[in-house]
Amino acid sequence: GIKQSTITKFFSKG
Amino acid sequence: MFELRLVQGSLLKRVIDAIKDLVNDANFDCSSTGFSLQAMDSSHVALVALLLRSEGFEHFRCDRTFSMGMSIANMAKMLKCASNDDIITIKADDGTDTVTFMFESPSQDKISDIEMKLMDIDSDHLGIPDAEYEAIVRMPSTEFGSICTSLSTIGDTVTIAVSKQGVTFSTKGDIGSGNITCRQNSSTEKPEEATIIEMKEPVVLTFALKYITTFTKATSLSSQVTISLSSDMPVVVEYKIAEMGHIRYYLAPKIEE
Predict the structure, then answer these.
(1) Cα B182 to the chain's mean position, in Å?
(2) How far apart (Å, rounded) are the C-alpha atoms in residues B45 and B212?
(3) CA-to-CA dists, residue B202 to B161, B169, B230, angstroms
C-alpha cells in the first residue's frame, strides 16, 4: 500500500 | 530590545492566516537578518518556513538573536484587533515573557496596545538541504488554489505528474476520479498569469490533499506559486512575499511500500 512519510525522514535535526 | 514596524500591517495578518491551520505553537526567530520561523505540523508531515527580511520593515531593531515562542492561534486572535490598513509595531524586551503589538490607524487617530504572553516551546530546527529539483512548476497561485479545492471534493490525495506535456494534478475517490493538466504558457503579457515548467526529469509524486489545501491559504501573499519536485523527496510549495521574503511549505510524499 501507499503510506504517508514524515518530514523528519528527509530532513535531519540540527 | 526587539522592535519592528510594518506599515503594511495586513501582510502580517495574512502571513499568520497562512500558518495558523498548520501549526499550533512556534518559535519566531529574531535576528539582524529578519523575523523568521520554522515549524512542523503536529504529525510531522509538513513543515513551514517563513522569512521576513529586516530590509522589508520600515523600522527593524534587534540587539541580539533570540526566539519568541508564540501560540499562532492566540497571535491570530490578537491580530484580529488590527484593521487591514493599520501600521503594526511588534516590541519585546530581553528577559520578559510578553510581546507587545501596537496597531496604529493610518491617520493616527486610533492606537491599540495589545500584550500577549510568550511561551516556552521546545522545538528542534531541521536542516533543510539545498537541493536541485527535478521539476519546477511556476503557476498563478489562484489557479493552483482552485485546482486543490476542486480535487479535494473528489479525493483525499493528489498525484502531481510533471512531463514534457505539462503538469497534471489527479485524484481518485469513492465517487470517481479527476485530473487537471496545465500546459506551459509563457506567452501571456502578464507575467503573473504565466505557467512555466522547468523539467530535468519527469516526476510523479503523491501527496495528502488536506495539507496542500492548507498551504493555499497563502494565495493572497503572492500572484505566483512555485512547486519544486524531486522523486521520493518532500515537495516545496513557495509563495514569495514581495520585497520581504517568502513562505515555504514542505510536504512529505506518500510512498509505496
Answers:
(1) 23
(2) 11
(3) 7, 14, 9
Average pLDDT of span B199-226:
97
Distance, in Å, from the CA atom of B121 to the CA atom of B15, rounded to the nearest integer, reads 20
Q: Is the per-residue pLDDT at A14 higher than 70?
A: no
Minimum Cα–Cα distance from A9: chain B residue: B252
Mean pLDDT, to the nearest integer, of B113-131?
91
Mean pLDDT of chain B: 95
1-14 in chain A: CB under 8 A from chain B? 1-14
Q: Grid coordinates standing for B88? A: 503594526
Instruction: For residue B110, list its beta bridge partners.
Output: none
- Nearest CB to A12: which of B46, B126, B234? B126
Using the structure block, give the residue that is written with the C-alpha cell 501571456.
B188
ipTM: 0.95
B-interface mutation test, from A4, A8, A9, A12, most B Cβ less than 10 A away: A4
| pLDDT tens for each residue of B123-145 | 878 999 888 999 999 999 999 99
Which among B43, B125, B256 has CB closest to A2? Answer: B256
